[in-house]
Request: fold
Amino acid sequence: MFAAAIVIAIASVVIDQLIKLYINGNIELYAERGFIPHVLSITHIRNSGAAWSIMEGKTWFLVLLPVVMIAAALWFMYRNRHGSKLALVSLGLVVGGGIGNLIDRVRLHEVIDYLKCEFIDFPIFNFADICVVVGAVLFCVYMFFFDETDKNKKSQKTDSRDNESEIPDDKKEPLQ
Reply:
């Protein structure tokens, strides 16, 4: 399943970069085109910050943070390569989206954004952002509902306490 997660990450990067290549080559900067009326439009902008342009101009930090997060996600994916499919797929999306935006930051010192929600006031975003958010939400679902790590630790503690209580008091070693 690890290989499938890597394929998901690579596919996310390729799709993201192809869309950005199309947007950059076919839609003028700051131009807006209708896509789904009153729902979504294509608006070509550049963002040198993160969401809502926070940390604008802090390119070094906005490069370093994703590099660390991508490395941590890849390490977790490899370490748990025989584990949960949901965890691996979700992190594959996070890694792919992170790399997609990282390519823009390194190459252009800003990210190409183009999807604008018409029905709410929300930052313009891109496919890589969608991958990161969907992957992060899925990983949270995995952690809250499917991760067995804490359950196993709790059951091991309970088992060790149960075994300890079976030993008669006169046979227990004194604590030092």
